[in-house]
UniProtKB/TrEMBL annotation:
Zn(2+) binds at C145, C147, C182, H185. This is Thymidine kinase. The gene is tdk. One of its GO terms (molecular function) is thymidine kinase activity. Homotetramer. Its EC number is 2.7.1.21. SUPFAM superfamilies: Glucocorticoid receptor-like (DNA-binding domain), P-loop containing nucleoside triphosphate hydrolases.
Length: 193
């Protein structure tokens, strides 16, 4: 039975690296892996996923309102898909998470979603909230704070490296914009303790 998996972490934990490795394993065995990424996340180029350690791959870009179930069903009818991978799954709409669950439940294709759990203000992303609620299996990918404790939070920085405490929930960026911390150090920075 196919399942919906959600591997979550903070920034720089290696989520994209894990996704690319798992996708490669399918492809190496002659199986088709469909890799999805939000269209507006073009840091590595439109329809491309890249990891900090230099791995990259082409991906199918999707927009916020796209019906992922219909898209995957159509692509599967054209050529069998063995597994669906979603990078930056926090950018999914709640309905898209349900569509991915239906892919696992009705088409029988496992779906592996990788993304952030919370934003820079410590709030759940809508896509992550839905995945935490309905995924069959949850997996935490770990990274560490500068103090050595498990990092579970992230701060957003401005161009001068100052902590930003307010703003839009979604702002695409990498190491130049986000730093992972344990909850204590995140709280110190966000609340100027």
């Amino acid at each position: 039975m196919a399942k919906l998996y959600f591997s979550y972490a903070t920034m720089n934990a290696g989520k994209s690296t894990l996704l690319l490795q798992a996708s490669y394993n399918y492809q190496e065995r002659g199986m088709r892996a469909l890799v999805l990424i939000a269209a507006f996340d073009d840091r590595a180029g439109k329809g491309r996923i890249s990891s900090r350690i230099g791995l990259s791959a082409d991906a199918t870009a999707f927009a916020h309102g796209d019906d992922l179930y219909a898209m995957i069903e159509r692509l599967h009818d054209e050529e069998k898909i063995a597994c669906v991978f979603v990078d930056e799954a926090q950018f999914l709409a709640e309905e898209q998470v349900w569509q991915l669950a239906r892919v696992a439940d009705r088409i029988g294709i496992p779906v592996m979603a990788y993304g952030l759990r919370t934003d820079f203000q410590g709030k759940l992303f809508p896509g992550s909230m839905a995945l935490l609620a309905i995924a069959d299996e949850l997996r935490e990918v770990r990274t560490i704070c500068h103090c050595g404790r498990k990092a579970t939070m992230v701060v957003r920085l401005d161009a001068e490296g100052r902590v930003i405490r307010e703003g839009a929930q979604i702002e695409v960026g990498g190491n130049e914009k986000y730093v992972s911390y344990c909850r204590r150090h995140w709280d110190d920075l966000m609340n100027e303790v």
